[in-house]
Amino acid sequence: MQPEYKKLEWWLIGLTTVGVAAMLAPGLVVWAKFVTVPDDAAVVEAVGQQWSWSFRLPGEDGVLGAIDATLIGADNPFGMDANDPRGQDDVLVFGPELHLPLDKPVKVLLRSKDVLHNFTVPQFRVKMDTVPGMVTFMWLTPTRTGEFEILCEELCGMGHFAMRSRVVVDDADTYQAWLANQRTYAQLTARPAADLVAGATAYSVCSACHGINAEGNQALNAPKLAGLPKWYLTRQVHNFQDGMRGGAPGNDIAIQMSAIVEPLDETTIDNVVAYIATLPDKAAHSTIRGDAAAGASSYITCAYCHGAAGQGSWSTNAPPLAGMSDWYLARQLQQFREGHRGRHPQDLHGAQMARLSRVVPEGKQTDDLLAYINTLR
Ligand SMILES: [Cu+2]
Questions:
Q1: Pick the CATH number of 42-189 from 3.30.2350.10, 3.90.1150.30, 1.10.150.450, 2.60.40.420
Q2: Handedness of CA 327, 229, 216, 246 (dihedral sign)
Q3: For residues 258 and 251, what is the distance between their CA atoms, to the nearest angstrom?
Q4: Ligand 1 centre and the CA of 311: distance in Å?
Q5: How many whole angstroms from 130 Cα to the centroid of ligand 1?
Q6: Were both Cys, which of 14, 283, 309, 310 would link to 377 (CB 3.0–4.6 Å)?
Q7: Ligand 1 mean position to 329 CA, how many Å?
Q8: What is the pTM of this model?
Q9: What is the pLDDT of residues 332-343, one digit of tens each?
């Protein structure tokens, strides 16, 4: 027996070292592949913010235009630098989905507007943090067509669980058809200024239900529109046109709206929405009785997206609630809860609210909450 067999120990140390190195070395090769983007990879950019994703493609020149965080606003959500010629042909996709062509390597540049997020598509088997002030990246080659959910896998605040989007992998033709339907930055900025006179004429149809001053008409189930921002009005008119609202069975009231806005073209929508924005925003009468003090605590959740004063926020895509028709808000919450709104596969903003609508139970708690919202005017 030899308690200390030096020679054997040296052998053991040596063999273990070589063994461990041999086990780890292949990882370096794999890692090198993971971080080395093929030269022919196309570029797309995914931008995370509380609590949604948006996407930008470089357009024909293959180069993304410069952006500047100080330029970000309701009219320029990407913070595009108007003076950079490379940005003019950039394709801006506000969601709900990013399309990728099959079998083409793609480098995904990742940005964040606010806090840490993490861009994850479970089936891609890669994920990457998005960091404010930094551009991170990952790359992949989609090998099968289909729809895959984009998640955020960084706890990024109250709406984290509802920060979902979709990647759709298309064959070449379908991809080109999708791309042809997207708008470039130049096209988005070149839209002519709205014509308020034409807007007033177009609005005369709407006034039959929504009222001369867009103050709403409960007897006709038509909510107040005055006070809603242009981005929200425009999106909802599109939602009615595209069957995201008003198409669902059980939503008979909204079907009327779809029929009315169906024939409107983009210019008319711009005009009528601009006209509505000029109408006086007087708070709607309250019709719901409840205990506002009790409702205040339920509203804390809502404030994250709709604002502490119920003023709405373009960055969270959430409309104003303060001063709006309370009976209409009540009905929308019900529509969301019951899946008549926010269920359409293209309605990602609605889906987000649908998830949130279950936070507050029906009945007294909802009445209290709406009574509280009625005090925010
Ligand atoms: Cu996030």
A1: 2.60.40.420
A2: negative
A3: 11
A4: 23
A5: 9
A6: 283
A7: 27
A8: 0.89
A9: 999 999 888 998
